[in-house]
Specification:
Blueprint: H1 8-12, H2 14-17, E1 32-40, E2 44-51, E3 57-63, H3 68-81, E4 90-95, E5 102-107, H4 114-120, H5 123-142, E6 145-146, E7 155-158, E8 163-166, E9 173-174, H6 193-196, H7 205-220, H8 231-242, H9 245-253, H10 290-299, H11 310-314, H12 320-328
Helix pairs in contact: 5-7, 7-10
Family: Belongs to the protein kinase superfamily. Ser/Thr protein kinase family. CK2 subfamily.
Domain Protein kinase: 32-319
Binding site for ATP: 61
């Protein structure tokens, strides 16, 4: 059972989480025009578009044909969460005349690419954006939802406007205690250990591991901190950093039977000090402060119940300056934006 927000969905009631019986009222797509393709993946194609009624730029996510249940889940979750802090806004849902193609219309964010962000971001930037991501996740978890695919590609950052949005809710799910969830979620480099060892009784803490992986990338200036070639290699890379002693204890505590034909996974590895991963040229060594590494240590733990929650992480001493600025300026680091997200002129 999750340490926090375990019974949120029961408290909010079936109408809040029952997406299978949720009816979507689709709009006509005529008012939107596609400008350019932004990206895409297994479940969707994403385009930059324009709302012809008000000339606003938007994002049009065209869903590939999937079961209705999956579409309903994503729309229901977005409807529930839209308006929350740092959550991408769902503006409209449209369906073509044939009823075969469905699209989600969302707010547009002028995103900075992850590789560029790693070079560009200062210590203050890292503190600010990780704090904003945790703020989003605390809201999401408090509404009974696990994102299950937190990664750089799903965290849009408009650096000029100092704005962050958590996007892509296609793998998100409502959390209920004592439910065995599917482990084929997340993206490999950001998969928590519980997914890699087949533990299905996971909870919101899955998302905190993913944030920890992003945080490690920022501190150590690596595009992906754990970069496995497959799931076994992904787990191996984690073992070589966090060590096998606590991994074995974790398996025993949760009665997880883990079998592997991968010989390297059966060997013993000592836990590595985080300072080992600072940039070799010392240019970014100042990012890996004692407070930063303490926060990282408390996010990247095998035992999901020992990871900080999103709320607890926001209270960590690492973010003292962000909280102080937030108290002085509504948007935090107030030379940039207000909470509304619009750039100040």
């Amino acid at each position: 059972m999750a340490r926090t927000y375990a019974d949120v969905n029961d408290a909010l009631g079936r109408q809040w989480y029952d997406y299978e019986n949720f009816t979507i009222e689709w709009s006509s797509p005529e008012r939107y025009e596609i400008i350019d393709r932004i990206g895409g993946g297994k479940y969707s194609e994403v385009f930059k578009g324009i709302d012809m009624v008000n000339s606003d730029i938007c994002v049009i996510k065209v869903l590939k044909p999937v079961v209705d249940k999956k579409i309903k889940r994503e729309v229901k979750i977005l409807r529930n969460l839209t308006g929350g802090p740092n959550i991408i806004a769902l503006l409209d849902v449209v369906q073509d005349q044939t009823g075969r193609y469905h699209s989600l219309v969302m707010e547009y964010i002028e995103n900075v690419e992850w590789k560029a962000a790693l070079i560009l971001f200062t210590e203050v930037d890292i503190k600010y954006y990780i704090f904003q991501l945790l703020k989003a996740l605390d809201f999401v978890h408090s509404r009974g939802v696990m994102h299950r695919d937190v990664k750089p590609g799903n965290v849009m950052i408009d650096h000029r406007c100092r704005k962050l949005r958590l996007i892509d809710w296609g793998l998100a799910e409502f959390y209920h205690p004592d439910i065995a969830y599917h482990i084929r979620v997340g993206s490999r480099y950001y998969k928590a250990p519980e997914l890699l060892v087949g533990y299905k009784m996971y909870d919101y803490s899955l998302d905190i591991w993913s944030v920890g992986c992003m945080f490690a990338s920022m501190l150590f200036k690596r595009e992906h901190f754990f970069r496995g070639s497959d799931n076994d290699d992904q787990l191996l890379r984690i073992l070589r950093v966090l060590g096998t002693n606590s991994f074995d204890s974790y398996l025993k505590m949760y009665d997880i039977t883990f079998k592997s034909c991968h010989e390297a996974l059966l060997q013993e590895y000592p836990k590595q000090p985080w300072t080992r991963f600072t940039a070799p040229d010392y240019r970014h060594r100042d990012l890996a402060t004692t407070e930063a590494l303490d926060l990282l240590e408390k996010m990247l733990r095998y035992d999901h119940r020992q990871r900080l929650t999103a709320r607890e992480a926001q209270s960590h001493a690492y973010f003292n300056v962000v909280r102080l600025e937030g108290a002085s300026h509504k948007g935090g680091l107030g030379e940039y934006v207000s909470d509304s997200g619009f750039c100040s002129m």
